Automatic annotation (TrEMBL):
Histidine kinase/HSP90-like ATPase domain segment(s): 32-189
Species annotation: Lysobacter arseniciresistens ZS79
An example Gene Ontology molecular-function term: ATP-dependent protein folding chaperone
Protein name, entry field: Chaperone protein HtpG
NCBIfam families hit by this protein: PRK05218.1
Gene: htpG
InterPro entries: HATPase_C_sf (IPR036890), HATPase_dom (IPR003594), Heat_shock_protein_90_CS (IPR019805), HSP90_C (IPR037196), Hsp90_fam (IPR001404), Hsp90_N (IPR020575), Ribosomal_Su5_D2-typ_SF (IPR020568)
Binding residues annotated for ATP, in chain numbering: 39, 43, 85, 90, 98, 105-106, 127-132, 179, 353
Gene3D superfamilies xref list: 3.30.230.80, 3.40.50.11260, Heat shock protein 90, C-terminal domain, Histidine kinase-like ATPase, C-terminal domain
Family under the similarity heading: Belongs to the heat shock protein 90 family.
Region (C): 567-638
Subcellular locations according to the entry: Cytoplasm
Stretch list, region Disordered: 217-237
Length: 638
């Protein structure tokens, strides 16, 4: 810790994670270098939003300068680009917290994302809230001049760094509030020293920022004339506003083009891709609010990393004043991939997150947002199958969480889910539950499924053999969340969902009688298997499920699938021990050999292998893999 007083210039080291980010930024090749301008304008917009919100309680913060704006200028001679705002500004402590250290987990999560995706570029920076560092993509030195709105002119702060591990802090005199960021460009970045280039980037990435983005008047003409004189800050009347500078969602839908909606989404979501769909609605009545919601085409990186804590998908405005990122209060967790804004007319402007959680009006807004999102997904499923397929691949597993989390919409969510199936062929690699029901044979009243750790394991499960023989379709579920989801999805459209490993099979009278006869004839075999396996099994019985394989595991109605139980144990969950039920096919030569084998040790090896291969097929963990290998080798050599 430095012992210097706050007023003295000092040099500090970046925290380790910030230094890592800066190293990545300055030593990597990025496909979208120009993203720095979008990120710095986004930060400036946030600063203006904060000032507008704080000034509601303290109007003196505006101090006669109530027209909030963001200015972009450049100086060819000095080779600098300057982004300035008259927003809330920062004091010395905030500069250190926001730039030199980790103010949140965003920096660390950014590094984790970069480690997972070696091809990732600056698109990640904005999604993790560390967009300031994108300045070092094009600059070898960055200067920040800032003064908080409630601080005197003498308490301005100058921050400067070359991004190589250190930064300097100095207290300076600043007459106006707000923040100015000056980028000293690297030698190879001359393309950005152009009014035309900067203006085009603002139109591409920041057109719908809700504050005026200004550039010096006649900047394009100056470019054309190749003027290289030192560009001084323009006067108040020497700036042109170059963006729409209005809240897009407040405009009539008839006045907004698809390009406008797409551009606003890219700015809002720090994304380069167009959204799959959007929904823009105004609700009037006892409660008035506007929603503009987007379905992304690809998962935000925090979702790809399994993040459920840092949700920044929806922004809450009250009467066009930004209040907070309030995704948790505006949408259920299983829709956390949605991006957009909600602008409410009737909430108090001094609302806190704690008050939001108890606000009945917000529950109605949340229900409305949820309905709008599900409407969008249903519309894609019905009218745009290719886009819907993209959506399901990106967000299908996240949507499945809604089966357990949103009881009121459970059937509606289930209708949107897609699964692999023993009858899914050609281009239709997956089926809906409605597809399955439409193909059910007369008299069938059960939706059958099998769960496994992988698609190949599900498709190759021995428990499917009898169903294939009877031409009964089975859903193949291999996502980790499926077993959890099925704990809540017991039926759909009046049809029971049941695992092929549980309960009795749908046998006609003739097949049932045949099975009973086979079971009676195999009683001595079953008795010997139980004797040989001893405490390793709870029960041994003849299977109606098997036609080709020698053995499989069967589960009771309340048993957990072995592969899922293994995953929970690996995650540290304590689960009760239970003994498996082994089903055997008495017609299989390996099973018959148990009965005919005279050598007791060999018969015991075979019996254990029948159990162990059934456990492997079900995704269970073998209690003693080494013993399994030894048994297998003895039989192969014997």
């Amino acid at each position: 810790m430095s012992t210097q007083p706050d007023t003295a210039p000092e040099t500090r080291q970046f925290e380790a994670e910030v230094a890592q980010v800066l190293h990545l930024v300055t030593h990597s090749l990025y496909s979208h270098k120009e993203i720095f301008l979008r990120e710095l304008i986004s930060n400036a917009s946030d600063a203006c939003d904060k000032l507008r919100f704080e000034s509601l309680a303290n109007p003196s913060l505006l101090a006669g300068d109530g027209e909030l704006h963001i200015d972009v200028s450049w100086d060819e001679k000095a080779r600098t680009i300057t982004i300035a705002d008259n927003g809330i500004g920062m004091n010395r402590h905030e500069v250190v917290a926001n730039i030199g250290t980790i103010a949140s987990s965003g920096t660390r999560r950014y590094l984790e994302a970069m480690a997972q995706d070696k091809k990732a570029d600056t698109r990640l920076i904005g999604q993790f809230g560390v967009g300031f560092y994108s300045a070092f993509v094009v600059a070898d030195r960055v200067t920040v001049l800032t003064r908080r709105a409630d601080a005197p002119a003498s308490e301005g702060v100058k921050w400067e760094s070359d991004g190589k591990g250190e930064y300097t802090l100095e207290q300076v005199e600043l007459p106006g509030r707000g923040t100015t960021v000056v980028l000293h460009l690297k030698p190879e970045e001359d393309e950005f020293l152009s009014g035309w280039k900067l203006r085009s980037l603002v139109h591409r990435y920041s057109e719908h920022v809700a504050f005026p983005i200004r550039m010096p008047k006649d900047s394009d003409a100056a470019d054309a004339a190749d003027e290289s004189t030192d560009t001084q800050p323009a006067g108040q009347d020497e700036w042109d506003t170059i963006n729409a500078a209005s809240a897009l969602w407040t405009q009539a839908k008839s006045e907004i083009s698809d390009e406008d909606y797409q551009g606003f989404y890219k700015s809002l979501g720090h994304d380069f891709a167009d959204p799959l769909a959007w929904s823009h609605n105004r609700v009037e009545g006892n409660q008035s609010f506007t929603t503009l919601l987007y379905l992304p085409a690809q998962p935000p990186f925090e979702l790809m990393m399994g993040g459920r804590d840092e949700r920044k998908g929806l922004k809450l405005y009250i009467k066009r004043v930004f209040v907070m990122d309030a995704a948790e209060e505006l949408l259920p967790n299983y829709l956390r991939f949605v991006r957009g804004v909600v602008d409410a007319d009737d909430l108090p402007l001094n609302v806190s997150r704690e008050l939001l959680q108890q606000n009945r009006q917000l529950e109605k807004i949340k229900a409305s947002c949820t309905k709008r999102v599900l409407d969008m997904i249903e519309s894609l499923a019905k009218n745009e199958p290719e886009k819907f397929d993209t959506f399901i691949k990106a967000f299908g597993n996240t949507l499945k969480e809604g089966i357990g989390e949103d009881t009121g919409n459970r059937e509606r969510i289930a209708r949107l889910l897609r699964f692999a199936s023993t009858k899914a062929e050609g281009a239709a690699k997956t089926v809906s539950l409605d597809d399955y029901i439409a193909r059910m044979a007369e008299g069938q009243d059960t939706i059958w499924y099998v769960t496994a750790e992988t698609h190949a394991a599900a498709a190759g499960s021995p428990q499917l053999e009898a169903f294939r023989a009877r031409d009964i379709e089975v859903l193949l579920m291999s996502d980790r969340i499926d077993e959890w989801m099925l704990g809540y999805l017991h039926e759909y459209d009046g049809k029971k969902l049941q695992s092929v490993a549980k309960g009795e099979l749908p046998l006609d009278e003739a097949a049932k009688q045949q099975h009973e006869e086979a079971a009676k004839a195999a009683e001595p075999l079953v008795a010997r298997l139980k004797e040989l396996l001893g405490e390793r099994v709870g029960e041994v019985r003849v299977s109606a499920r098997l036609t080709d394989s020698p053995s499989c595991l069967a589960l009771s109605d309340y048993d957990m699938a072995p592969h899922f139980a293994r995953l929970l144990r690996e995650a540290g969950q304590d689960l009760p021990d239970s003994k498996p039920t082994l089903e055997v096919n008495p017609q299989h030569p390996l099973v018959q050999r148990v009965q005919t084998e005279a050598d007791e040790a060999t018969a015991k090896d075979i019996a254990n292998l029948l159990l162990e291969q059934a456990e492997i097929a079900a995704g269970a963990t073998l209690p003693d893999p080494a013993a399994f290998v030894q048994r297998m080798n003895r039989l192969l050599l014997g």
